[in-house]
Amino acid sequence: MSLISQLPVLPIIVPIIAAPITLLLPKGRAPHLWATLFSWITFATCVWLFSEVSANGTISYFLGDWAPPIGIEYRIDLANALVLLLVSGIAALTFPFAYRSVQLEVDERQTPAFYGALLICMTGLLGVTITGDAFNVFVFLEISSLSAYALIAMGARRDRRALTAAFNYLVMGTIGATFFVIGIGLLYQATGTLNMADLADRLIGQNNRMVQAGFAFILVGMGLKLAMFPMHLWLPNAYTYAPSAVTAFMAATATKVAVYVLIRFFFSVFNFDFAFIGASFTYVLLPLGLVGMFAASLVAVFQEDVKRMLAYSSVAQIGYMLLGLSFATVEGLTATLVHMFNHALMKGALFMAVACVVLRAGSSSINAFAGLSKRMPVTTWAFILSGLSLIGVPLTVGFVSKWYLLDAAFSAGHWYAGFLIVASSLIALLYIGRVAEQMLLKEPAEDGKYALPKEEAPMSMLIPMWLLIAANIYFGLRTELTGDIATRAAEALMLSAGGAP
Amino acid sequence: MISPGLAIPLALAVPLIGFIAIWLLGKHPNLREAATLVTGGILVVLAVIVFAAVGEGQRPGFVLFEVIDGLPIAFAAEPLGAMFAVIASGLWLVNSVYSIGYMRGGNEKHQTRFYMSFAVAISAAMGVAFAANLFTLFIFYEVLTLSTFPLVTHKGDEKARNGGRVYLGVLMATSIGLLLPAIVWTYAITGTGDFTDGGIMAAHADAVGPIAGILLGLYVFGVGKAALMPVHPWLPNAMVAPTPVSAFLHAVAVVKAGVFSVLKIAVYIFGIDFMADTGASLPFMWIAAASILLASAIAMHKDNLKARLAYSTVSQLSYVTLGAMLATQMGVMGGAMQIAAHALGKMTLFMCAGAIYVAHHKTLVSEMRGLGRVMPWTFGAFFLGAMSIIGLPPMGGSWPKFFLMLGAADTGQLATIAVLMISSILNVIYLLSIPVQAFYMSPAEGDAKPKGVNEAGAKGAGIQWGALQEAPILCLAPPLVTATGAFLLFFFADPLYNFLTPMIGGG
Amino acid sequence: MDDWFSFILARYNYWIVIVLMMTGLYIVFARGNLVKKIVGLNIFQTSVFIYYITIGKIAGGTAPIYMGGELDAAAHHEPEGEHGGDAAGHDAEAAAHGAEAAAHDAGEASEALHAKIDNSALDAGNNLKDALKKAPPQSGEAAGSLHAAPDVSSDVAEKISNNTLSHLDKTPPNPGIGPGLDLAPDGLHDAAANAGHGAADAAHAAVEAIVYSNPLPHVLILTAIVVGVATTAVGLALAVRIREAYGTIEEDELEAADDIAEFGRQASAERAPA
């Protein structure tokens, strides 16, 4: 029972054991340090796992040594190794970042519960990614969602609307997850198994209404979780009123994991022979992705609160991912995977910058950003660099994402989609430009409504943020990790779906 | 000595080192300025090394690394790029001297930020000049836009902010909205974006054929820095910047990067023959011709000197675009030489405009009557620059016009020749009138003083007629240098022609 | 007309599911009181539980709880976690390799269990039946339950099922039954796994072989119930907090309060009482 043979279960076991212990720790520094330590350990295991998978191919692990399709299998190939790396990496940066921000925004008595819930949320997201069993996905999905509801509600100390936001998210999220479990049930009824690989075998040739209904339920259920337009309504409020560190973590991970689940079901469970797959690409993902891109971007331009602006921006970026998926080509799938990774880096950094501003200026309203370049230059430049990344300026990950997406669009013959992609990027230019202009060119607000920041954000927040920015630039220059891995993963997924590579 | 292959990356790195040096020396103005000048000097040397190597037939190159699979950041020097690099670096040196005079003479703020942005901008311009493929070109093109933004909004007031908004908005919108899709589309169809002699489209003629016009349009309008109407508004709006910035933007870095990119794409991506065969460039030739005339017409109505020069620039840049879209060897040659000639000529004009502002705070043409008598050197240089722009011998600007007309005759586009001639006449009207009025007319009302009166006028700081009141020497010498350069270009046209011949394929 | 009627009546279980599902969803959308919304969610989730139950229920099947004495070595095979019968997977391996194999493999897995297997074909029959219910490779609709399985395309399979049901203490007439183990070896893994207890029991009560309902959905439902309870708890806790913070748990009043906070005025058409 060596460590390496048990490696696949470590990213789950380690944090899930640490989480309840966090609750027992005294409030203050201890829960935070404990949670940070375990987030780093988890990240290390995910890095190890990733290197194993990328060197030696798909890993299959039977939980408890019980063979599938009865036992639960953890199945890690390149696609979910990448997502595992992403989620644990973001967690490893957000956890140390969170301390000062949480100190301000969350009641001190709640901190043990806060960090415990954060660990559980991370565990849930990792579990969704790592498992190869369909029902297990539901379980971990709900684990992450329930803790997310609680985490969002903990922002009530700053703004009581966090409570209603969390409640609405709870209702919508539960409906979504329940739809998903109905879909799983229908698939189970049709095939008798819950193991994804087994499902794939047994679904071949099946095209009856039971399977179609199951597919539809799964699509809608996960669509709600990933904030596919028009089921995104929970997202803006949830992201705006949650504690800023929670927003940074969730914006970078939760929806990406849901997109991953969708990809996994589309390609590794269902296959291209299934009639609904082609139809859903053309009639569901493509139009909803396009509408989401534009509608959300346009709404973002007019927002007064920067967190809300970035939340709508996230909905638009999800639209990009769905668009890439809808091309049904290897390039399109690669573009989606690359953008999943890159967007997490961009949005994580942006929300971290906003968290710094909230800490020092007390508000995330756009007026609080006025003249920030003079008082908080480091944070200003962090925001601007990640904002440029979002727009798609070369040398950043955002540009790499755009390139892959455009390449996929033109190669697939969907040239109009290419132009729509750049058009919505220009809208991003508008809203990022608004904030940048406030920060660089406007004078600091003197009327005292927004506390003038007296100093720069603390180091414990600046360092993780700038590490994320450095990642933005690094992966914008060297794409072997993101691009090459994503291409390999996409090819494998395409193959398993029976499509042309 | 440094090998040409190494000189290329050094040409990008040295200004960035200068950037850091300027930052560190911010508190010591003289040392800081020295850093800029030293960087400029080294850059000129590097550019000349590459220029000489290319002149001998070499094509030095340098590959940095692959960003995405199949997309390296790579550099390669060829005649057009080498010429642009020499012009850009040389004129940056001249402009830096001028900037020192202007910024100090006008007691401007934020000078460190000013020189730092300049350093990054020139590095980006070098990147554009030496780019070996579309991907690299796009990267440095964008960096150029972003690094010049702080320069345009330097003054920091409401007008500067609005100007900056239009500047960034138009340039980013065209580059992200039109140029980027065009580049990706090119890669998707042809599988490459490398600048190749004869172009890369010919090999994929059946795939490109139907969309050649669309693709060319995307490129021509996507390169917003070429200021082809109607994507030109950023240029007049950038006049809110201090004059050294305008001189740099309108002669050296930004606009030249724009038309250079258009020319390079036309020659090395589409290929002259391919464009001629498919006729894709014909509509854009007409748009360029219209742009020439329209911009000149607008220029005539502008009283603000810088605004007038801005529209003149739009018009002159469209000469280059016209040359590229004529799709003939002589046309392209004319366009390429216009890059050099216009750089020298326009820079002279802008630097004179700045000198006038520093010395007498005059910005309107109507206020400059009779000013030539107290600023003879400035207006003399202006006169020479104007002659070059108009295209009269013995100034360098006459040769590009000549080749453009040859190219137009080659294709049988005689209407274009008419356009070129009408444009020259318009240039005479709105450009030459300025020095002529300055020398021969009496000062306007309010400034009118009888000859011989020396004391300050009723405004308190009026012009003391009768005494020579030139701009400070640092503002005066550079325009004289560039005017001389424009003059010398006339005589060195032949070596330049021979240098550029490989670009058009033998000739 | 008659067919229609019997069609509807025969599927009463699914109708219940649909009615509850829609009722629950409707309550969530239509009711403004937060607690009522949560109740609606609960009803919605309950419909899902019933759905899972109904696809696991086998006509004439009893609860899949193993009740045998000597075989309480099997006690540790109680379903744990989400997919019970995992341990029975070992048993499944054994049972799938045929009667003798089963008897031999017994020693490895659970000695007591397999030592008692006299009529391995009987087990095989039971297992096969369960397997067929869960994983008919040819049919898509039949897995649910016997009473809703008109489309089993494999005649042999049907015969086997019927035969095992009715001739439980006889060797099945079709000699293919024994080798019928080969029909769905994979299914047998599942079946045997889940019917591990069943197999053991059948071994004892060779005369009255017991039909079990599929235990796997039960496990799934348990999990879903737990999730539902947790969700309800979080939802109600949030409702309490909202009550403390806003003074109300009516959705329209909450929206009005939020609108005022957001826009400084009420944006909704319905004005809530001040």
Q: Would you give an account of this structure?
A:
The complex is a heterotrimer of chains A (501), B (507) and C (274). Chain A has a domain at 274-501. The longest helix of chain A has 32 residues, at 330-361. Chain A has a two-stranded antiparallel ribbon. Chain A has helices spanning 10-24, 29-56, 78-105, 111-130, 134-153, 161-191, 196-203, 209-225, 234-241, 244-269, 275-301, 306-326, 330-361, 372-375, 377-391, 397-411, 415-441, 459-477, 480-497, and strands at 59-62, 73-76. By secondary structure, chain A is mostly helical. Chain A contains 19 helices and 2 strands. By secondary structure, chain B is an all-alpha fold. Chain B has 20 helices and 2 strands. Chain B has helices at 4-24, 29-55, 79-105, 111-130, 134-152, 158-190, 205-208, 212-222, 234-237, 243-252, 254-270, 272-278, 282-300, 305-326, 329-360, 376-390, 398-411, 414-440, 473-491, 493-500; strands spanning 61-68, 71-76. In chain B, a hairpin with a 2-residue loop joins β1 and β2 (71-76). In chain B, α11 packs across α12. Chain C has 274 residues and is an all-alpha fold. Chain C folds into 2 domains: 2-56 and 219-263, Helix Hairpins, CATH 1.10.287.3510; 70-213, no CATH class. Helices cover 60% and strands 0% of the residues of chain C. Chain C has helices spanning 2-10, 12-30, 34-56, 88-96, 98-106, 111-115, 120-134, 155-166, 185-194, 196-204, 215-246, 251-263. In chain C, α2 (12-30) runs antiparallel to α3 (34-56) and α4 (88-96) crosses α5 (98-106). The model of chain C is unreliable at 70-203 and 269-274 (pLDDT under 50). At the A-B interface, α16, α17 and α19 of A face β1, α5 and α6 of B.
